[in-house]
Design brief:
homodimer, alpha/beta, 9 helices, Alpha/beta knot
C-alpha cells in the first residue's frame, strides 16, 4: 500500500441518460466544476476531465475557470483556483482515453460508476488496493441520471453503487464523487481498510 | 452494532465565519438544500435542520421546498421531494437543540464538524460505534468558512477533519456532509469498519 496514486476523474455530460432512460447531453453546471474540483484536489486526483460535446458549454466553463485562475477570484480566493486548475475540458470521452494512456501508459484501467445494483461490480476495497499497488485509474461519472449504456462498452469495470440505509439511491453526482474519492483515496481508515 | 441510528444534521448559516475569521451570517443556497437533503435521505438521517436568522431566507427556502413537495416538481421528480421533506427551517441553533432533545430525550449528543486539525477530536469509527449502540446524535455543519467559535461552547465533541492526500482542506460543505454521513452511517464497510 505505498505506490503514489494515479487517479483521474472524468465527468461526462454526454452521452448520459435522463429520467426516462433516453440518451441525452446535459448542461455543465458551475457547482459541478467547483465542488468536484475541490474534492479532486483534496484527495490527490491528477486531472479532472470535464467532457461536453457543446463548444459553447466548454467556452462558458473556460470563462468560469479563468475567473478563479486569472481574474478577480485569484486574489479573492486563491484556494479555489488551486482546485479548478485540475480541470481539462474535452469534447468526448475518447479524447480522455487517449490522453490518459499517453500520460500513464496503455494499462490505465477505466472504471465506471453507476447507482444501480447489479452483479459483477468492483468493490471499493479492491479498487483501493489496486490504486495503492500502482494501477493507474480513470474514474467515470455521468451527470443527469447517469452514464449511457454505450459508455459501459468502453470500460474495464464498474464500481458498486453507494448504498445507504434504505432503497433511496439519488445522491447528487457531487456527493457521489466526494464519497467515492474518500473511499478509495482518503487517508482515513488506512488502518481499518487494509 | 444493531440499534437503529438516530442522527440529525443541522446546517448553520449563522453564526459562521468568513475567510477572514469574522463572524457573519451567510446566504442559503439552493444546492445546499438539495444535495444535503439527498445525502441525508440516502443515509437515513431523521431531520435535516436548516438554520438561518433571516426570515426572508427561510421564506425563500420554504418556496423552493414547496415546489418539490407540492408544486410541479412533485410530479416531475418525486424522489426530490422525498429528500427535501426531511428539511425543517429554524432561526437559531438553540431551537434545534430543544427540539432534538424533545424528540430523542436529554442525552442527545451534539457533535460539531471543523476543517482544522486539533487535538481532542472525535474519530469516525468511535462516532459510528456510538451511533450504532443507540446514542442519538445531532451533527452540526457550518457554511462559509465554518462554524463560529461560540458554537463550539454548545457542543459535546468535535469530529476530526476530513484528511485527503495533502494539506488542501477546502471541501464544499456539500461534499463534507456526504463524506461524513458515509463514514458514520454508510452500509459499505460494516465488515471492515467494525
Amino acid at each position: 500500500m505505498s505506490a503514489c496514486p494515479q487517479v483521474d476523474v472524468a465527468l461526462l455530460h454526454a452521452p448520459v441518460v435522463n429520467r426516462r432512460g433516453e440518451v441525452i447531453g446535459s448542461a455543465v453546471t458551475n457547482l459541478d466544476l467547483h465542488d468536484i474540483a475541490r474534492a479532486c484536489r483534496t484527495f490527490g486526483v491528477d486531472t479532472y476531465w470535464v467532457v461536453t460535446p457543446y463548444a459553447r458549454q466548454r467556452e462558458l466553463s473556460r470563462q468560469i475557470i479563468s475567473h478563479w485562475l486569472d481574474g478577480h477570484g485569484k486574489t479573492a480566493n486563491p484556494d479555489r483556483g488551486d482546485a479548478l486548475s485540475l480541470i481539462r475540458l474535452r469534447s468526448e470521452l475518447t479524447e480522455v482515453l487517449v490522453e490518459t494512456r499517453q500520460k500513464w501508459g496503455p494499462d490505465v484501467q477505466v472504471v465506471a460508476t453507476c447507482a444501480d445494483r447489479a452483479s459483477e461490480r468492483m468493490s471499493y476495497p479492491y479498487l483501493r488496493k489496486r490504486i495503492f499497488s500502482g494501477q493507474p485509474i480513470l474514474l467515470l461519472f455521468g451527470t443527469g441520471w447517469g452514464l449511457a449504456p454505450e459508455v459501459f462498452t468502453l470500460v474495464d469495470a464498474t464500481l458498486s453503487p453507494i448504498l445507504g440505509s434504505g432503497g433511496y439511491n439519488h445522491l447528487s453526482v457531487r456527493s457521489a464523487v466526494s464519497i467515492i474519492l474518500d473511499r478509495v483515496l482518503g487517508e482515513y481508515g488506512d488502518d481499518i481498510r487494509k
